[in-house]
Amino acid sequence: MDPDVATADDMESNASAPTERIALEEFQKKYISQWFIDQKRKEFLKLKQIRMTVAEYEREFVRLSKYGWKCVSIEAMMCKRFEDGLNKEIHLLVGILKLKELVVLVERSCKAKELAKEKRKANIESHDSKKRQRGKSHQTSSKRSRVFSARSNTSGGFSSRNKSK
């Protein structure tokens, strides 16, 4: 093997991030239509988690971010865009952390999702418990009212036959 000839693996491992971006841009200009790139950039800019898991959202975010890299050229900007696309319940929990590393943000987002799920489950259990308590107290009060109404009908000591005489 000729030592002066670099392999693709050598070039990839030795390439710096700006060089890789320039190479990617040149490749895209040459082989991918501008319309396609624009569509993918728009898709990236509109990306929201909605019904995806955090892991699915991260995967899609990273995949599309190469088309919108100008919008997320700094990792802090990337984190902000990722955070803005998260569901509200997760966004509220991780937004206050002001994280600047995507890996950490994704990890905390996953934990926030788990916490939100546990909170929902606890709320449902609490609501069900309150319903059962209300149901028991309603049954007890309705039993009391039946007993009370039965007693009040007969409490006069006179039957309806005696009143008419």
Automatic annotation (TrEMBL):
Superkingdom as given in the UniProt entry: Eukaryota
Residue ranges, compositional bias (Basic residues): 129-146
Domain Retrotransposon gag: 25-87
Database matches in Pfam families: Retrotrans_gag (PF03732)
Region annotation (Disordered) ranges: 116-165
Biased composition (Polar residues): 150-165
InterPro entries tied to this protein: Retrotrans_gag_dom
Biased composition (Basic and acidic residues): 116-128
PANTHER family: DNA DAMAGE-INDUCIBLE PROTEIN 1-LIKE, RETROTRANSPOSON GAG DOMAIN-CONTAINING PROTEIN
Protein name as catalogued: Retrotransposon gag domain-containing protein
Organism: Gossypium hirsutum
Lineage, uppermost ranks: Eukaryota, Viridiplantae, Streptophyta, Embryophyta, Tracheophyta
